Every structure is written in structure tokens, then in C-alpha cells.
UniProtKB/TrEMBL annotation:
<feature type="compositionally biased region" description="Polar residues">
    <location>
        <begin position="14"/>
        <end position="27"/>
    </location>
</feature>
<keyword id="KW-1133">Transmembrane helix</keyword>
<protein>
    <recommendedName>
        <fullName>Late embryogenesis abundant protein LEA-2 subgroup domain-containing protein</fullName>
    </recommendedName>
</protein>
<feature type="region of interest" description="Disordered">
    <location>
        <begin position="1"/>
        <end position="41"/>
    </location>
</feature>
<dbReference type="InterPro" id="IPR004864">
    <property type="entry name" value="LEA_2"/>
</dbReference>
<feature type="transmembrane region" description="Helical">
    <location>
        <begin position="54"/>
        <end position="81"/>
    </location>
</feature>
<dbReference type="InterPro" id="IPR055301">
    <property type="entry name" value="Lea14-like_2"/>
</dbReference>
<keyword id="KW-0472">Membrane</keyword>
<dbReference type="Pfam" id="PF03168">
    <property type="entry name" value="LEA_2"/>
</dbReference>
<keyword id="KW-0812">Transmembrane</keyword>
<feature type="domain" description="Late embryogenesis abundant protein LEA-2 subgroup">
    <location>
        <begin position="119"/>
        <end position="221"/>
    </location>
</feature>
Amino acid sequence: MDQNQTNKEEQPTKPLTSTQNHTSSPSIYPINTIDEEHGTTSGERSQYLRRRRCMICCCGCCATVAILLGIVILILSFTVFKIKDPSLTVNYINITSVDPGLGTNNNLVSVNLTLNANLSLKNPNIASFKFKNSTTEFFYEGQTVGVAYALSGEVGAYKTTHMNVSLDVLTDRAVAAAGHINLTGIVVGEDLNFTSYTDIAGRVNVLGVYKRNIDVTVNCTYTVEYSVTTFDTKKITCSADAT
């Protein structure tokens, strides 16, 4: 029995075989590689979502700005950019000179009056008003007794310009149009009722978008005190219109 124990103690320990080592060793997985791929995929997705959010924000901002601009333009088109009618006013009409002359058998009175009319043209628009040559006609009993011309010009935005118009009125034509001569009226004074018509055509152009042709007219009736020694305007009534 002692010999058997001695043999067992002397018997060397056998090493583990390679098969046993392979079977008993744990499996090894590429954990780092999987984590890197997962991280790369998550990064690309986050970049895509970030770009998408930026694109949505940009589109929303552009749409908001476009809507606001449209509202502002709509408001301006009905307020500031709306083209309004210029106004024409006759401030006064003065007789600057009297030129008496010899009459004829038909018209014993031959007197030429030189009138000076002061007109105001007001432009209430944001753009200038450019007008063409204008005419002012004076009538008595439906017959033309004088015509005045004014040169073309321009009225600035929210400005008023003054125009002086001079013309000669042939009073002998007025007497002829009346069909009779009141000698007593000529001596002591007689009132002659004249009418005038002024036409000014022009155009307003706002930023090249809002354009409009405007025709401004004014009709006036005024009374001239007419006698051998007196020629004076007494009353002026005017009404203006624009189309």
C-alpha cells in the first residue's frame, strides 16, 4: 500500500490538451467594432435631423417674411402708394392793364383787358406729377374772348406749385356777344359775368408700378366791373374736378 501511494505521488501530472483548452475557453466578440458602427450610424442620423430642422426653420422664416412683405405692400398700396387726384385752385385774377381803342360802327366799344390769373396746383402723392402744356379759355355768353397758355412742368411729391397765366380779353367781343350796348352802364359801371375753363393733363408714376393719367380741370365764373374809368374783378367762384 505504501508502494502504491508512492507510485501515485511519483506519477507526473498530465497537461491539458489543446482540445480541452479550446472547449473550455470563453468566446470572444468584437465589441469595439460594433460600438464604433453604432456610434457612426447615430452620428449620421443626428446630422440628418439637424439639417432637416435647419431647413424647416429656413423655409418657415422665408414664408413668414414673404407673408409679412405681402401684407405691408397691400397696406401701402391702399394708403401711401394710392394715387390721389391733384387739386387745382384759382387764387386770384387781376386786371393788369387796360388798352382802349377805337370802335367800329358795329361795336362802339373796343377795349382790351390783360388779366393775370394765379393758379395753385397741389400734388398729394408720394411721386411727382408731370403735366403737359395747359390752356385757359375765357368765355362770355358762350363766345371765346381770350385764351392763355401755360408751359409744361412737374410738381414734386407732396408739393404745391404756383403758375401765373396772362391773357388778353377782348371786351368788344363780349359786347358783341351780349347783342346790345348799355351806354348808361358803360358810363356809370356795368357788371360782366365771365367764365373760364382750365385743363391740365398729366401723369403720376409711383415706382414704375402704380401709374395713372390724370386730367385736372377747373371751371370759374367771375364778375368784372366794367365802365369807362373802372375795370375790376369783384367775385370769383371756381369748382375743380379730376379724372
